Amino acid sequence: MQQSIDDLIALLDLEEIEQNHYRAHSPSQGWQRVYGGQVIGQALVAASRTVDVDRPAHSLHGYFLRPGDTSIPILYTVDRIRDGRSFTTRRVAAIQHGQAIFAMSISFQIEEQGFSHQLPMPDVPGPDELIDERVLRAQQAAALPPEMRETFTSQAMIDVRYIDPQDLFKPEKRPPHQMCWMKSRDPLPDDRRLHQCVLAYMSDWSLLDTATLPHAVSFTQTNMQVASLDHAMWFHRPFRADEWLLYVQDSPSASGARGLNRGLVYNQAGELVASATQEGLIRLHS
């Protein structure tokens, strides 16, 4: 199991090739396209490398422009937009084949005290009462050809446990909301920025699926085209990504072949530590 966390840390440990320019790689196995959470997390790493350590990220807003190619490196370029007394702003572009595949703006802030309130965490079963997503996927993919089964069950770097899991190969209509616990599978170093980058990586894992729930469709269908279009996050309070986090997701609207999704992230103490929103393409081909 240690190999999985080493892989995740290595994935987010970018190579600096020139000032403000970083190179990253993708896992050699799994999906043909680069996982969106990987690009979000790596872009946040690149931006963070150019900011003083006493300024953690508080928000990010990104757009997916083209599918990522897992067979070649990704170049991340950082534009140092502003360094203020309280806030620092960066813009990052991810480039492959000479074209931008992703663009993101990130804002960092010094630590400050102020008003505090939050929505309460839902009362749900704990992660120890739920089944590991890898086990669920193995059960659901039992009838697939071996090569497809390996791809479908290859994700091992994060531990995800759904409160009420959906069968991805036999979806049924249900309300547009879902919840899951998630964390890295093994302990991470005591680096607040790394924990933010790991949560950014995890935040894309199931969010778009929420918009498909009322329509009894799944990304596993050959006539479904599903892709993240944009992604935003806000970091409210310190947290650890190697401890269980509850991801509360809903989809208030779908139209025009797009679905809007929202997520709230709580720690086990019930503190709201982050929020996310995402619009994605959910196109059904005839």
Compact description:
With 286 residues, the chain is an alpha+beta fold. It has one domain: Acyl-CoA thioesterase, double hotdog domain (Porin). It contains five helices and twelve strands.
How would you portray this structure in words?
The chain is built from 5 helices and 12 strands. By secondary structure, it is an alpha+beta fold. The chain has a single domain, classed as Acyl-CoA thioesterase, double hotdog domain (Porin, Beta Barrel), CATH 2.40.160. A 12-stranded antiparallel sheet has the order 1-2-4-5-6-3-9-12-11-10-8-7. Strand 5 (87-96) and strand 6 form a beta hairpin. The longest helix is centred in the N-terminal third of the chain and has 13 residues, at 36-48. The chain starts with a helix and ends with a strand.
List keywords for this structure.
single chain; 286 residues; alpha+beta; Porin; twelve-stranded antiparallel beta sheet; 12 strands; globular
CATH H-level superfamily? Acyl-CoA thioesterase, double hotdog domain
Look at the structure and give the CATH class: Mainly Beta
Chain-averaged pLDDT: 91
Strand element count: 12
Sequence of strands across the biggest β-sheet = 1-2-4-5-6-3-9-12-11-10-8-7
Order of helices and strands: HEEHEEEEHHEEHEEEE
Which fold name fills CATH's third level, the topology? Porin
What's the story with the biggest beta sheet?
Answer: 12 strands, antiparallel
Count of structural domains: 1
Tally of helical segments: 5
The CATH architecture assignment turns out to be Beta Barrel
Helix content: 10-25%
Instruction: Report low-confidence residues grouped into runs of 5 or more.
Output: none
Briefly note the structural class of the backbone.
alpha+beta
The value of Rg in angstroms is 18 Å
Broad shape: globular
